[in-house]
Amino acid sequence: MGDKSVWDQEIAVPAAVIEYIDKGVKDKLPQGTQCHGITPSGASYWARTAKIDATNEHGENTPFFIKVHQTETGKEMASSEFEAMKLLRKVMPELVAEQIGWGLYLERPDTWFYLCRYCELSGDLPSLSKFPELLAEMHRRSAASPSAMGQGDLFGLDLVTYGGRNQHSFPPSPSWEEAFTRGLQKTFDMEEATQGPDPEMQRLRQSLMTKVIPRLLRPLETDGRTVTPTLVHGDLWDGNVSVDVYTGSPVIFDATPLYAHNEYELAPWWAPRHKMTGAYIDEYTKHYPISDPKEDFADRGALYGLKFDLHASSLYAGNLMHRDIVMDTMRRLLGKYHLGYEGYLEEQAGK
Fold it and tell me: Where are the transmembrane segments (predicted)?
């Protein structure tokens, strides 16, 4: 989701919440579970995370992972993560740990948790030869099945998710252009609320909405072309995927899913600051073909990447690194596509 080097503030949730196993947590565990202890595990900049050592009714080791939040926002974060990961697991259980539940601590006020099966993660990047193929399979499966959220053939998702403490919201929409535009507008608003208004940023934003987005996204859904709503993880940078130590299989987590153009999933891989970059994109496109017009592929990736850079900027008041990246990207795209969709139509008519 962002650059770890700027995430240096103290975690707001006290460490005491993972020094014991609350009764509310125990009530959510499978019947017959015996708990044997809890230890810090994993890393989060917004919550406390831990491993619960446990055995099932047959005495077999069945550890669990817990993420603990506080405040009303924390409640929404716990519940939305449960729903988000459940949605992904329904489509691709090979990549997602089983969800157990979410709920309220009974012995501590205003404290909320999310529970899933525990996976011992290596911290390594997933296999270049296997992971893009599995991701492409997840996209194919979701595109071939009815919407699991009961929203028909709409883009977006009727579920607000969280990246850090800020929301991701893509209201269900009939076209991908509309869904992306509405989601990006909300992220621009959130970023401005954090960093304050900037006249050039506002000018670039307006031109992006009226020129660049129609130019790059409308051709996907015109001239007989269509985009199929595809379930995506929604924040698939290298901090949200790892490898199970015991099985060697990739595991994805911390999702902000929506039904999107499948190429939206690749946006973090275009950013040079991330570890999963062009090689993963190249491998993915061997298993899921690039959408037409193919010549727009890289610039669509840059456009989609604005959503992630804006969201990262919205998290840290006063740190303008990601805002600068956003503005540079917008300048480049506007320099190339200042004639908008109308220019594209004239270009096509002249061929």
Answer: none
